[in-house]
Design a protein that fits this description.
- The chain is an alpha+beta fold.
- It has one domain (2-178).
- The chain has four helices and seven strands, in the order E-H-H-E-E-E-E-H-E-E-H.
- The chain has helices at 13-21, 24-33, 102-120, 169-178; strands spanning 2-7, 35-55, 58-67, 76-78, 87-92, 129-150, 153-160.
- The strands form two sheets. The protein has a five-stranded antiparallel beta sheet.
- The longest helix is centred in the middle third of the chain and has 19 residues, at 102-120.
- It starts with a strand and ends with a helix.
Length: 179
């Protein structure tokens, strides 16, 4: 069992089960397609970065977090550093291992921030300077995983434990490869 620090989930197991089961029509239709056989919470490690963006003489500071498993997932954006977020100690067997160091992740984060800044408007940029500082802390974010079965085949669906939204193939791949 691993002892980890996790951001406190805003989503309970009962809410996750309700969302995995869907509405009345889905509950009626799903038994013929596939059946929910289990729900687990899986913790994905994230590294926090302090990002300063200077454009036209104005500096904005953001706190971004990137997954420390493969660096594939979209960054989380927070208004405050991890110290000010609601976190808790969790003992779990379902925490993915940290596979990337701060030094490996810094160029990944810099590239993501560059794309984000240029996506806001290339012609609005003047004297842009981007500074990415790793904070050096790993915090896990909870994801609810629904396990479905149809015959001999299994599949999963994932819901973000903070934003309460279904996730796509990137998160499923990170979870499947991480476990």
């Amino acid at each position: 069992m691993a002892h980890i620090v996790s951001v406190t989930s805003t989503f309970s197991e009962a809410e996750a089960i309700r969302q995995f089961c869907g509405g009345r029509v889905q509950r009626w239709w799903r038994p013929w397609r596939r059946r929910l056989v289990g729900v687990r919470v899986v913790y994905i490690p994230y590294r926090l970065f302090r990002v300063s963006i200077t454009n036209r003489g104005q500096t904005r500071t953001r706190w971004l977090a990137l997954d420390a498993v493969m660096g594939w997932l979209d960054p989380y954006q927070f208004d405050a550093p991890w110290d000010e977020l609601a976190t808790e100690w969790v003992e779990t067997e379902h925490a993915l291992p940290v596979q990337l160091s701060d030094e490996q992740m810094r160029p990944m984060m810099l590239e993501r921030v560059r794309r984000w800044v240029y996506g806001e408007g290339f012609f609005r940029l003047r004297d842009v300077h981007i500074e990415v500082e790793p904070v050096g802390r790993v915090v896990h974010i909870p994801y609810w995983v629904g396990i479905y079965r149809r015959g001999d085949r299994f599949s999963i669906e994932v819901i973000d434990g903070l934003q309460k939204r279904r996730q796509g193939a990137k998160v499923r791949d990170v979870i499947l490869k991480g476990l």
